Amino acid sequence: MRLSTLYPSACAALLAGLLATAPQAWAQTAQQGTAADAAAAATPSTAATPASPYVMPATQVWDMPSDNGEVYRIFVSAPDKGEPPKGGYPVLYVLDGNAYFGSFAQARWVQDYLPVGKAIIVGVGYPGDKPWDVRRMADYTAQLREPLSPEVRPFAQYKSGARAPFLDFLIGKLRREIAQRYPVNLERQSLFGHSFGGLFALYALYERPQAFEAIVAASPSMEWNGQSILDEERAFRDKVQAGKVGATSRLMVVVGDRDADGDPESARMLAERLEALSGWGLRVRLQRYPNEVHASVPAQAANDTMRFAFTLR
């Protein structure tokens, strides 16, 4: 809606004033500009101010070791003014923090005045300036199956199978550290992971169904390691249907329709299979982005993820 529609009298007066003073103002500006140009021509130019790295407001970063000696870089975006909500701030843990923390932190910061911005983003990454670290393969995946399938053989040189201690670090030592530094709600802890991180997010749901209030698995690499995650899904479904699980995390599956690595059809079928467990309390949502590819899904998903994680239901 145009401003003139809301305030017709004020806009008309403002426009009339501008038109009445415009000739004098333009003449004065022209004279000032000519004088300024002459002064600039007579004064030697000075060097530009040296550039410095940009630091996002309302953020902190530190390195932290796990109990088994692995060092992680922890990025935090938190409100720096006002009172926390009753019970403390909800928290969203974002895997591959070096790559994705910035998108989530910026989205939270510019919405600081809204309920969705009154929350804490914790990026979990690795020391260094690269977006991804090879250590993520160990932290996010199961041990490679033998015999190795052709698609995983090139990766056999890297460590794998450390997802259990990494999950312990996330919901143990790191969660306690965040609670010591910030007023948080320990009942409202959520997790976002993409690609291998999305695969890990599914593992977290199947392995510790009550560890997070909400989980977002974006473009999960379910084809990895001979689709071994499907065996864990079946075991999880059996336990839920047998009444051995109880309350579980809410799950949102995110995928781009042009995502060649995170097959949108596989994501759709996963959501459909797990949605069948709604009678046992599991809540599942599928979020598809028609024009997004594998690498562009996380930035697109930042706001939807925060709404899913931080909106009370």
TrEMBL record:
> In its UniProt entry, what is this protein called?
Alpha/beta hydrolase
Signal sequence bounds: 1-27
Task: Please spell out the taxonomic lineage of the organism that makes this protein.
Answer: Bacteria, Pseudomonadati, Pseudomonadota, Betaproteobacteria, Burkholderiales
InterPro entries tied to this protein: AB_hydrolase_fold, Esterase-like, Siderophore_Hydrolase_D
Which UniProt keywords are listed? Hydrolase, Signal
Q: Which family does it belong to?
A: Belongs to the esterase D family.
* Gene3D superfamilies given in the database record: alpha/beta hydrolase
Tree of life domain: Bacteria
Molecular function terms in GO for this entry? Answer: hydrolase activity
Tell me yes or no: is Signal among this UniProt entry's keywords.
yes
Which PANTHER family does the entry mention?
A: SIDEROPHORE TRIACETYLFUSARININE C ESTERASE (PTHR40841), SIDEROPHORE-DEGRADING ESTERASE (EUROFUNG) (PTHR40841:SF2)
Organism field: Comamonas sediminis
Coiled-coil positions are: none
Which Pfam families does the UniProt record give?
Esterase
Q: Which SUPFAM superfamilies match?
A: alpha/beta-Hydrolases
